[in-house]
Amino acid sequence: MKKGKRITGLVKRSLTHLVLWLIVVIFFSFFLGIEGADIYSKIIFSLFFLPVTIATTYTFLYHLIPKYLLPKHYFKFGLFTLYTLVISSIFIILSAFYGFVIALELQWNANFPISKSLFFIIITIYLVVAIASAFSLLKNNYSATAKNEELKNRILEAQLKLKDQELQYLKMQIHPHFLFNTLNTIYGLSLSKNEKTPEMILQLSDLLDYILYQTTKPSVKLEEEINHIRNYIDLEKKRFQDALEIEFKSDQIPSDIELAPMLLLPFVENSFKHGKGNDGKLKISICIKLENKQLDFKIINSVKPSCEYTIAEGIGLENIRRRLNLLYGKNYELRIEDEKEYFSVNLKVNTAKMPADVR
């Protein structure tokens, strides 16, 4: 089948070239013809220039241009071009002489003078060669551009696949991390046989539904993310009871505002996991603002001065930073302050700038 396609392609190219050279012969007949001669004599005269025109043209198209010009061997291209022009000029002069003699049937008289000078004939033939060479260069340039675009598209497609795989991997890291922290909370209550343990398990069920199903989507409603933060806070309130002082403030969030899932909740997790005050109380302040689709999330928690609370503790914060880089690029700002008595995170995200390929 491939052989048949090659033969068909070869036949098409051959017919195309044949038609083009017939057009050149007609052009030569009317432009370089013998003054006062009949059409037959003009065609015979023009045909004598066709072999040298074809040879010169194909020398440029299939040898000089692909072998020297495209690889940017400019000196060799110029040198061999000069050789080609000198040799072809000689053959053009010979073709003109024999064409003139044969077209006049070896008879010299004043009835059939050449209408154009030899110099003009040479320039006209080289014009055909130049047009064919220019067309070949344009074709090569278009082909190279198309190949580059195809290569760029393949590279971009591969990068997007790798990006998606990395995002999925990061999400998979977050899920067990979150589940581990929450189960620890419930385990602590179960040891004390707290009567609120069943209620917490039910709340955990709701959170797991969100994590296992909703977070598989590229983006979720911001109000849903905030609602699950509230659920998580309720779970922790039952565990810490009087040892927790928490302030939670949030603007009214429009239902059309979306965010990548599980971006805010890990910050809240870390504040409960690592936070601790000198007086034995954990103090947490959470503030969520939204202005012109610009999300401003800030969380501050108390820490003991002796506690070295850094991002390296756990995968949560570093994981989120990596996801932010992949999803939002330069359209976010994350500031983390680790002071002696408090630890704060301030995340600003332009929710309108989430890349379309991850939506």
TrEMBL record:
Gene3D superfamilies attached to this UniProt entry: Histidine kinase-like ATPase, C-terminal domain
A Pfam family assignment: His_kinase
Residues passing through the membrane, by range: 18-37, 43-65, 77-98, 118-138
Keyword Glycoprotein included in the entry's annotation: no
Keywords: Coiled coil, Kinase, Membrane, Transferase, Transmembrane, Transmembrane helix
Coiled coil: 139-168
Domain Signal transduction histidine kinase internal region: 166-244
Molecular functions per Gene Ontology: phosphorelay sensor kinase activity
CC per GO annotation: membrane
Name of the molecule in the record: Histidine kinase
Species the sequence originates in: Christiangramia sediminis
